[in-house]
Design brief:
This protein is α/β, with parallel strands linked by helices. It is 28% helix and 35% strand. The chain is built from four helices and eight strands; from the N terminus they run αβββαββαβαββ. The strands form two sheets. Strands 1, 2, 3, 6, 7 and 8 form a six-stranded mixed β-sheet that branches. A two-stranded antiparallel sheet has the order 4-5.
């Protein structure tokens, strides 16, 4: 074992602690997702959430991310201020898996995906997120994991936010 090995392991552990599941959320007046020219999910007023699972994410990260998506205040109140959440307005939620959100674009002209979860882990966590969303919120629709999808939306505002789940040992 080289003298550099423990440092590499230590660096690797800090990377694992820093992983966060991602949701790129958009306030929409309507949105749908199609696969093979068939609509597989659609909502009216609500939130379109593009979801990425990173290496090291777990069901708890998915649960924390879902809670943020449902309670993030992106809808206007009576004064026009963004003080209402998706849960408050009882709007639709469209979850769309999108692994490209984990892309490393810091150098070169081609994205790297070393931080993305392997496909089976990502499929399992997206399914968990979708199941939990359907258990606690209605209406919920979704794209198909691994499919070539066409997403249509009317972004209301536009209002778009990048959300990450935080590791369990960090505050929300």
């Amino acid at each position: 074992m080289s003298a550099e090995m423990p440092q590499a392991i230590s660096a690797n552990r800090s990377i694992v602690h820093d992983v966060r599941m991602i949701a790129l959320i958009q306030r929409v007046t309507r949105a749908d997702v199609q696969v093979d020219a068939q609509i597989v999910g659609a909502i009216e007023r609500g939130t379109l959430a593009l979801i990425d699972v990173r290496r090291g994410d777990d069901p708890q990260a998915a649960d924390r991310l879902l809670e943020r998506v449902l309670t993030y205040r992106i809808f206007p109140d009576e004064q026009g201020r963004m003080n209402l959440s998706l849960r408050d307005i009882q709007g639709g939620l469209l979850l769309v898996p999108q692994f490209t959100l984990a892309a490393d674009t810091q150098k070169g002209t081609r994205a790297g995906f070393s931080t993305a979860a392997d496909p089976e882990d990502a499929r399992r966590l997206f399914a968990h997120l979708l199941e939990r969303a359907r258990a606690v919120h209605r209406p919920v629709a979704a794209g198909l994991f691994g499919a070539n999808m066409q997403v249509s939306l009317v972004n209301d505002g536009p209002v778009t936010f990048w959300l990450e789940s935080r590791p369990a040992n960090e505050h929300s």
